[in-house]
Amino acid sequence: MENIQHKYVEVRGLKLHVAEIETGPAVVFLHGFPEIWYSWRHQMIALSTAGFRAIAPDYRGYGLSEMPPEPEKTTFRDLIDDLLAILDSFGIPKVSNSSNLQWTAYHFALLYPDRVSAVITLGVPFLLTGPEAFPRQFIPGGFYMLRWQARRAEKDFGRFDVKTVVKNIYILFSESELPIAGEDQEIMDLVDPLTPLPPWFSEEDLANYATLYEKSGFRTPLQVPYRAWLQDYGVSDLEVKVPALLIMGEKDYVYKFHGIAEYITSGKVKEYVPDLEITFMPEGTHFVQEQFPDQVNDLIISFLKKHI
């Protein structure tokens, strides 16, 4: 961890935080929620040792990056434009993207194919955006994404301190069932207060996350991804032109979502990502990069050495 440098880049009027270890070809790690740059700590160190330059930004409004003046207007395109500006400021012509928020990694590859060598996603395959991605008729009303989209999260989260909210979400997302609340419940109510942290997630890890979310709050994270997910990619050609790797935990709750398993195993996903390799981790849950860092590191490094 001591080898990771922390920099700030002025991007479109905001000071954005970037964690980095400089060595060789650039690999950008893009986080989801409730994550931050720290989610990729194991991968950054391993890839640096293997000769790669590891870069992990905090999105605008996340972690150590500044919040935009109107967080509720943030879009996925804002995150893409921020990433492009960061790469330009570092003088990096081409990168490999690794992400567990697939919209960002694939969106960047679709918009700027000449700037991407490869894409790696963890836990979520390439998906269409808009209603096609999550058809409402198959989604229970208590599903966490719909609850947070409907702006119930603010009141739900507000009953607890930030550390407890982050802890509860990590516990929920590390389980194998879809987080669905009953009519008389909120999402935070799904977690028994006595439930321990996953064994691979320490109290120190939780404290690091909580400190940064106490700084940033949840306004931007609730907007992107949850309230911006209906936005389209902004391109007509939805075929990803670069090699890609999907690392999927078989106990990931996402894999239980309607149609996802068939979409992956039938090869339907390859209609959009023809050069896709898929690796399943039998015991993997949603945060496989933290749960099984050594295995994930080996998979990422092996894939990158084949394609860069």
Features:
AB hydrolase-1 domain-containing protein, AB_hydrolase_fold, 8-stranded mixed sheet, 308 residues, Epox_hydrolase-like, 8 strands, hydrolase
The appropriate CATH architecture is 3-Layer(aba) Sandwich
Helix content: 25-40%
Largest sheet: 8 strands, mixed
CATH class: Alpha Beta
Distance between the termini: 25 Å
- Stretches where pLDDT falls below 50 for ≥5 residues? none
Family: Belongs to the AB hydrolase superfamily. Epoxide hydrolase family.
Pfam families: Abhydrolase_1
Organism: Camellia sinensis var. sinensis
Domain AB hydrolase-1: 25-256
In brief, what are we looking at here?
This protein is of the alpha/beta class and 308 residues long.
Structure description:
It is a single chain. By secondary structure, this protein is of the alpha/beta class. It has one domain: Alpha/Beta hydrolase fold, catalytic domain (Rossmann fold, 3-Layer(aba) Sandwich). About 35% of the residues lie in helices and about 15% in strands. It contains 11 helices and 8 strands. Strands 1-2-4-3-5-6-7-8 form an 8-stranded mixed beta sheet, with helices on both faces. Helix 1 (about 40-50) crosses helix 11, helix 2 (about 75-90) crosses helix 3 and helix 6 (about 160-175) packs across helix 7. The two termini are about 25 Å apart. Keywords: Hydrolase. One of its GO terms (molecular function) is hydrolase activity. Belongs to the AB hydrolase superfamily. Epoxide hydrolase family.
